[in-house]
Amino acid sequence: MFVLLIAFAASTALSYFYFKEKFSFESSFIAEIESRSANAGSSTQRQDELRLYESNGHTAEVEGGSISRKDALLVAAEDVIRKHLKPYRVRLLDLYMDKEGIIYIDIGKEIKRNFRGDAYEELKIIGELYKGIKSTVPGFSALKILIEGREAESFGGHIDISKPIGEEIAESIR
C-alpha cells in the first residue's frame, strides 16, 4: 500500500511538470503586450487606464445621474465576471482597463480555496470570461487575472494566468 502511495505521488508530481508547459499559452500578441508594458514606465503605464473601483484615485465619473460609456462597459464586464465566478463565492476586488484594451480582473484568494475542478473546467472558466468580456466590451484585447492584487501562476493549478490571456484561450475551448 505504501509503495502504491509513493508511486501515485511521484506520478502526480511528474505529470504536473510535464503538462505545465502544455497548458501555458504563448503568442506573439502576448509578447507584444509585454514588450509595450516593459517599455512604458510604471508611473505612466497605468496613467490612461479606466477603473471601476476607487483603487488609487481613479473613480467612475457620473454625470447627470448616468455613467459614461466606458464606465458602463466596465459595469457590463463586471456582470459577466460575477456570473461566471458566482459558484466559487469569489470577491471581485478591482476591475480596470488600460489604454491598450487589457482588462485586469483582481479577485479574492477564495478562488484558490473554492475551486475544485480539473484542467478543462479551469480552462472553460477562463475562456468563458474572455468570450463574455469580448462580446460586451469593444476595444477589449486581452484579459489579465490577478489574485489579491498580485500576479498568480494559476488559481486551480492547471492553467497559466501569469500572462495576459488572448484569443487563443477562447479558441481552445470550442
As for the number of domains, it is: 1
What's the main sheet like?
5 strands, mixed
Low-confidence stretches: 42-48, 54-68
The tally of helices reads: 7
Question: In angstroms, what is the radius of gyration?
Answer: 18 Å
Descriptive tags:
single chain; globular; alpha+beta; 174 residues; two-stranded antiparallel ribbon
Polypeptide structure, described:
With 174 residues, the chain is α+β, with helices and mostly antiparallel strands. The protein has one domain (2-171). The chain contains seven helices and seven strands, in the order αααβββαββααββα. The protein has helices spanning 2-20, 28-39, 42-45, 69-85, 110-114, 119-136, 167-171, and strands spanning 50-51, 62-63, 66-67, 92-97, 102-107, 142-147, 150-151. A five-stranded mixed sheet has the order 1-4-5-6-7, with helices on one face. It has a two-stranded antiparallel ribbon with strand order 2-3. Strand 6 (142-147) and strand 7 (150-151) form a beta hairpin. Helix 4 runs antiparallel to helix 6 (119-136). The chain is globular and about 60 Å long.
Map the helices and strands:
Elements: H1 2-20, H2 28-39, H3 42-45, E1 50-51, E2 62-63, E3 66-67, H4 69-85, E4 92-97, E5 102-107, H5 110-114, H6 119-136, E6 142-147, E7 150-151, H7 167-171
Parallel strand pairs: 5-6
Antiparallel strand pairs: 1-4, 2-3, 4-5, 6-7
Compact summary:
The protein is an alpha+beta fold.
